[in-house]
Amino acid sequence: MARRDIIILPDRRLRQKSEPVARITADIRALVEDMLEAMYDAPGIGLAAIQVGVAKRVVTIDVSKNDDEKCPQVFINPEIVARSAEMSVYEEGCLSIPDVHEDVERPAAVTVSYRDLEGKTRSIEADGLLATCLQHEIDHLNGVLFIDHISKLKRDRIVKKFTKAAKRAAE
Ligand code: K1U
Ligand code: ZN
Is 11 helix (H, G, I), strand (E, B) or coil? Predict the structure, then answer.
C-alpha cells in the first residue's frame, strides 16, 4: 500500500493553486518518492502533488508502455511556454475522479520548462500522450480538473455523483 492516499472529488484541496518549490530539499525528494509509489500503485500515468494533499508544484509522469521497464519523469515548477495550434482529443481519466472517462481537446504539442530533481532548469518538447498528461497535471497545479474541459451538464452530473458518495461514506 502506498504511503500517501490520493484525494478524491469533491475534496476542496483539488481546487487549490499549488505553490512553487523554492528549494529542492530532502522533503521534496521524499515527496517525489511517495508520489511515484502512489502513481504506480494506483496505477496511473501521472500525478500532481496536490492529489496527495501537498500544494507544491511537483508532478510525476510515466507514460512508458513497457511494464517491465519503468521510465519515471519528475517535473518541478513546470510551465507551458509554447502550445501547438494543432489540437488533439484524448479520452482522459483522473485518479482523483475514479472510473470517469471523457474526451478532452487540448493542444497536440507543448513545450514545458521545469526544474529537475537536481534543480537544473530544463525544457521538453512533448507531443502525444506525454503532452496530454503534462497539460492534465499542470492543470492540477492550478486547481483545474479535466472535467472543467467538458460540458457543464456532464460536469455537474459527475460532481453531484461524487458529492453524494462522499456524504454516504461520512454517515
Ligand atoms: O493526474 C491524474 O489523475 C492521473 C491520470 C493522468 C492522465 C490520464 C489520462 C490522460 C491524461 C492524464 C491517470 O493516470 S488516470 C489512469 C490512466 O490513465 C491509466 C492507468 C493505467 C494504465 C494506463 C493509464
Ligand atoms: Zn488528474
Answer: coil
Q: Give catalytic residue positions.
A: 137
Among all ligands shown, which has an atom nearest to the Cα of 132? 1
Lowest mean pLDDT among 17-31, 33-47, 65-79, 113-127: 65-79
pLDDT band at 68 (very low <50, low <70, confident <90, very high): confident
Determine the 3-state secondary structure of 107 from DSSP.
Answer: strand
Strand 121-127 to 102-107 pairing: unpaired
Q: Which residues line ligand 1 (CB under 6 A)?
A: 43-48, 90, 92-96, 132-133, 136-137, 140
- Note the helical H segments in the chain: 26-41, 128-141, 152-170
Cα–ligand 1 centroid distance for 46 (angstroms): 6
- pTM of the entire structure? 0.98
Q: Which domains does the chain have, with CATH numbers?
A: 12-170 (3.90.45.10)
Helix (H) or strand (E) holding 77: strand 73-83
Provide the pLDDT confidence category of residue 65 given band limits of 50, 70 and 90: confident
Q: Supply the residue whose CA is at minimum distance from atom 7 of ligand 1.
A: 133
